[in-house]
Amino acid sequence: MTDAMTDGQPPLLTGDGRDGMMGPYGSRLLHGWYATGGAADLNEHLGRYGPPPSPRSTDAVDRLVRAVEDAGLTGRGGAAFPTGRKLRTVAGGRGTAVVVANGMESEPASRKDEMLLDLAPHLVLDGAALAAAAVGADVAHLCLPRTRQNQARALREAVEERQRRGLDTVPVMVHELPHHYVSSEETSLVRWLNGGDARPLSTPPRPFEKGVGRRPTLIDNVETLAHLALIARYGHGWFRSAGRPDAAGTTLVTLSGALRTPGVYEVPMGRPIGEVLDVAGGASEPLGSILLGGFFGSWLPVDQALRVPFAKQDLASLGAGPGAGVFVALPARACGLAEAARVLGYLAAQSARQCGPCRLGLPAVAADFADLAWGSPDPRLRERLEARVGLLAGRGACRHPDGASRFAATALRVFAHDARHHLSLGPCAAAGHEPVLPVPDTVVPDEREWR
Amino acid sequence: MTGIVPLAAGPSPLWYATRAGGTVALVLLTATVALGIAVGGRYTPRRLARFEVSALHRNLAVLTLAFLAVHIVTAILDTFVHLGWLVTVVPFTASYRPLWLGLGTVAFDLLLAVAATSAIRLRMGQRRWKTVHWLAYAAWPVALFHAAGTGTDTRLTLQLALYAACVALVVAAVWWRLYRAGPGRVAMRLWTGVTAAAVPVVLTAFLSSGPLQPGWAHRASGPAPAATGAVHPAPAPTDDAGGSE
Amino acid sequence: MSGTHSLGIDRIACDGYGLCAELLPELVELDEWGYPIVGSAPLTGQALGHARRAVAACPALALRLDRAQHRAPDRQSPQRT
Prior knowledge:
The complex is a heterotrimer of chains A (about 450), B (about 240) and C (about 80).
Chain A: H1 2-5, H2 31-36, H3 42-49, H4 58-71, H5 83-91, E1 97-102, H6 112-119, H7 121-135, E2 137-145, H8 149-164, E3 172-177, H9 186-193, E4 217-221, H10 222-240, E5 243-244, E6 247-248, E7 250-257, E8 263-268, H11 273-279, E9 287-292, E10 298-301, H12 302-305, H13 312-316, E11 326-331, H14 336-349, H15 356-374, H16 381-390, H17 400-414, H18 416-425
Parallel strand pairs in A: 1-2, 1-4, 2-3, 7-11
Antiparallel strand pairs in A: 5-6, 7-8, 9-10, 9-11
Helix pairs in contact in A: 4-5, 4-7, 4-10, 7-10, 14-15, 14-17, 15-16, 15-17
Chain B: H1 4-9, H2 13-40, H3 50-77, H4 98-119, H5 121-124, H6 126-133, H7 135-150, H8 157-180, H9 186-209, H10 216-220, H11 236-241
Helix pairs in contact in B: 2-3, 2-7, 2-8, 3-4, 4-7, 8-9
Chain C: E1 5-9, H1 19-23, E2 28-30, E3 36-38, H2 45-57, E4 63-67
Antiparallel strand pairs in C: 1-4, 2-3
């Protein structure tokens, strides 16, 4: 509260959330989990954070948007785009806006959205309602994968309870979408909500211009909305009290691989990656590399990665980004090429098969990689593979080929030594070992499975 | 075949222009359709670039329209049969062979829609444009039957050979396209193949039971009486009698 | 700012006909499967005229001229969570 007071503007409106401002270990979103070890129902949620403000006047709305801008909140879904700017753009669009909360989490190595929706559903729903108020939307859609039916049911009940108590000013619809890798892409959500396939669309127009029902559409990751719900209560100064000036607040991370206690954690932005891994008990065996950002991310050699702060600016210098806070620690004993080949096979199968580079280029890259990992590749493979990888980026309607390209390019760089070994001597012993990175079944979705 | 008519009043050059224009338009339309199919099937000849095939398709289409204009304008200006301007756009209103001439109007209307949408293709979007463009596949057989049913020259061997060549070209193009098509949409491909194969069969049956039989001119006149106050005597009887093929 | 155009491709619409590479060999290359590779360099003068004709010639209507002056506020990667 004190920070909110010193912001130079009155607090927006807040409940008696003093003790809700920060939980153990600096946790904010996971405060309730640390307090009770369970999911927070509406009473517990209101008890902890107080009722959400409901900005009705244009002045209050403007202050809310300004608070989000000043807080420096960035999207937690992977793009790290400034949320305040997005709010303003959608609010200024033509026509009544629509809010979409993206809880799809199609990234197989990420669990944080699922966890957040389980443990603190009302923070997300508060955030959706506040975002709707901020952009003048008359409806909010919450998109979940079809694979989590229990969660969808629980959220529908939560929405109903909030409606009964008059907490939400706009209707909130809970949807269950096909669970394919590219179905979490924002244009996929728009297309599905408009009655089509959960497959990406060509842009322009981008959803903030013409999205659901051809109206300006704000699409935010559910964690982003949960942060927004707290910024609305406690102000931007409070939000900035964690993290760095250029990487503010806390973020949820999914830590897995060779760590002592893998799981979902909340850490301040800007922490060195080594310290982030220590939150999960640190390495359980000698590490070789870190996969940052999951199947959509970048491989980093461990000696380089541990010192780098987890912030957009610092990661950019390594060709990486914070993504959705996915960290996989790969032990030194594992074969990175085999791990990467499995993931690329999955990504190739999971493309929407709409654009040439994804339909033809990505499977070719995956096949080359498999050859490199397990086959007896010819010496020209590496050159061809690098050329093919380079040609994926920027040549799809969505960023699926870009992510796959980055993943493959960083794998070739980080595992260059292994690649030389494989090229000259054939697959290493570890290539046949049990995978470290869990990769879902590589099945090509049927045409009808996109609806 | 119209041997008697010239004796009666001297043939109007317009009438010859109508017939020639129609025949050339049919040949051009056939070439345009075949090239359109070639573009869709990514035909890559050794000597031509793909954009040249594409450009040829477009240019021949424009040329087709030009010859159609000649065909239609001369038919109306000519006094051999009385046709009003309405006939150019509203099918089956002609006094002369209303059904068979009406098919020509239908084909013309379809081609106008195809041409107009192609002119604004960039603005109307690919999907809508393509939907309309498919009408060209309907226009071609309609035009063909218009030619066979109305055409004064249908009984000429050369003319029949021309029709045969046109049909062969388009059917071959369609089959080539189906051969190049990937898997999937089996029902669609099957129907397209059957439909394409049916065109020559139906046309042959029609020709042998209709235009190539005596009395066709009379029958083709349909419900409308043969004598419609035309300046020339109704050509029906003479047409058959003097059918010099 | 009116002169700043660049080539854009609707990747979903593009079917790899390859006409663009024939018409604009200096601007468009094809990958090994026949799909275009274009740069984002601004087009001016004669190149712009040629590009306009190529746009009109694309059988899939996938080639377009993007106005470079207006930058979309969030040309961002997808929500990938």
